[in-house]
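Team,

Forwarding the record for the chain on the shared tracking sheet. I've put the sequence and predicted structure together so nobody has to dig through attachments.
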Amino acid sequence: MFEILFLGTSASAPSAKRGLSAQIVSHNEYRFLVDCGEGTQRQILQSGIGFKRLTRILLTHGHLDHILGLGGLLSTFLRWEAIEELEIYGGRQTLDRVHDLLYGVVLRGNQPPMPLRLTEIKPGKFFETEDFSVTAFPVTHRGPDCLGYAFEGKARRPFLSEKADALGVPFGPERSKLVAGEAITLADGKRVSPDDVLGPFERGAKLVVVGDAGRTDDILETCRGADALVIESTYLDEEADMAKQFSHLTARMGAELAIKAGVKKLILTHLSRRYREKDVLAQAQAIFPNVSVARDFDVFQVKR
């Protein structure tokens, strides 16, 4: 299961109720901050989630409304907060801009208060643990190196407790060994293999997060079958020409993508201040019913 906390849901400039782009994706002890718009550190504090374990930042692209909060965040780490390390992932041009901000404006010849790594990534899997992975994929927006991120749980074979009970498998390390793929021998000499108590493989949860985007046909396959798709909705359909001019999406375009990709849940974010939330929701729901418009501090759980 993944959990996503929205810290900023406004497009380009903050509004009275919406901060700039930032979300935290969590999975067990892992946390990923996706984008860091201006004011993100305040949103982190207000959310109550704090800075602990917030050691990985994934950037979708280098526009200021998605990275400017990094300066304030590092400044806070210099003075008040302490984390063990900080790794910032993104495309080459995005990281060049981040380097100028952090080293040229914030640090100005000083050393960061923790090991700080700017890690260039290309499309493909770049982070993996025993039970989930994170993959970057290309997104079309203004400029190069624009990325989206797919968080995917590993496929698992469910443990069938009723079968284990029937075979007399005791609770404890024996069951753990079977889950890990090891055969065991019971006290009466009976041998039990993993196939005796494990069901067929089931895929893990899939969460796809898209930052700014100007088209959807090139991300269709990546989004296919996602349990949740987070994507921008900067415009409504009546201003589709403006959306195309500035390489953004409308609520209708996001909903149409969700239909084509067989997405289970659609979450719209990056809203322009010119629209009412209910109008954005209505346009998308006319095409794809299971849609939400994210507000700052909303939390969604993403399960298979």
